[in-house]
Amino acid sequence: MGLWIHFVKQWFAGESRLDAIKRVKQLNKSGIVGLINFLGEHHEEKHYIENSVRQYLLVLNEIKREKLDCEVSVKLSQLGLKSDEKYCFKNIEHIVKHAKKFGIFVWIDMENSELTQKTVDTYKKLRKHYSNVGICIQAYLKRSRKDIEDLISKKAIIRLVKGAYVEDSSIAFKSKERIRKSFLEIMHVLFKGSDKFAIATHDDRLVDEAIILENKYKKDVEFQMLMGVRHDLKIKLAKKNYRIVEYVPYGKHWMSYFMRRVRERPTILFLILRSAISK
Ligand code: FDA
User: Fold this and answer.
1) What is the mean pLDDT of the chain?
2) How far apart are CA 122 and CA 109, in angstroms?
3) For residue range 87-115, what is the model confidence (pLDDT) as tens digits?
4) How far is the CA of 261 from the centre of ligand 1 (A)?
């Protein structure tokens, strides 16, 4: 683990909740908002699911106590979505309700395509009763354009990303350029039809286009980026008074998250191998 952790550490705050809180305190000092995620996914055992709910409630208490500018981001599969949708709904509702008391926003991450429909359904049900909840939509999925139009009509608050999972070409765009085109198209739909949303990318071309659209439409948009990626860009945009939000993961279940980041940046694997050989 020693060697891996050296590389993982750039992308996550640490294994404890207080590591995440510490990171958000630093970010807030630079005018950047935090977005805490407790790492973990595909839990089916009650023990892990209950622990995830408890962690989020404690994080929310801590955000409130420390008066942090911070949101949270949750994966529904860590709350039991795969095995029991009703139970999962009860769990996410508990978190969203608690967050609402403190005026904190909760984002729902989007996972692999097996869970897309269930995640969208759960979100729609929640959004009927809560205003402090948003959902992530992946530009690489062919279905997303339709989902976005439907979700906008239901006053959804959307975070647009490219998409981080390995999906089949029958349901997902595969080439970088095609994914970027889809992102651009959906981003235009958001600026035209939605009042509040998040653009989550580190891609200069997409950020530049979002800024042009923001100047034109003057919407309540926030730019979200991952911890450890493009800090220069975060600072540059924060100084220009854009709302910049950094995704801050913490916890012991970091391997899947790490592997998704490696897929986006395969040169990391080369660096890991080189370090291992030179030891
Ligand atoms: P792209 O991958 O093309 O990267 C653009 C540039 O950013 C690169 O050229 C490089 O400079 C830099 N960069 C990108 N990734 C890097 C890395 N790992 N290390 C170092 N530099 C890197 N996905 C998903 O499927 N479900 C979700 O719920 C979420 N949630 C989410 C929240 C937030 C706040 C963000 C920013 C992203 C997500 N994602 C996600 C991940 C998203 O789908 C996507 O995989 C990553 O954002 C990388 O895509 P980019 O748009 O940045 O483009």
Assistant:
1) 93
2) 12
3) 999 999 999 999 999 999 999 999 999 99
4) 8
How big, in percent rounded to 5, are the helix, strand and coil portions of the chain? 55, 15, 30
Does domain 2-278 match CATH 3.20.20.220?
yes
Give me ligand 1 centre to Cα 234, in Å: 14
Among the listed residues 193, 266, 264, 168, the one whose alpha carbon sits nearest the alpha carbon of residue 225 = 264
Tell me what pLDDT residue 253 has.
Answer: 86
Mean pLDDT throughout 246-274? Answer: 81
Question: Ligand 1 pocket: which of 73, 161, 234 to mutate (most atoms <8 Å of CB)?
Answer: 161
Distance CA 251, CA 193 (A): 37
Protein residue whose Cα sits closest to atom 5 of ligand 1: 203
Q: Give residue 277's pLDDT.
A: 64
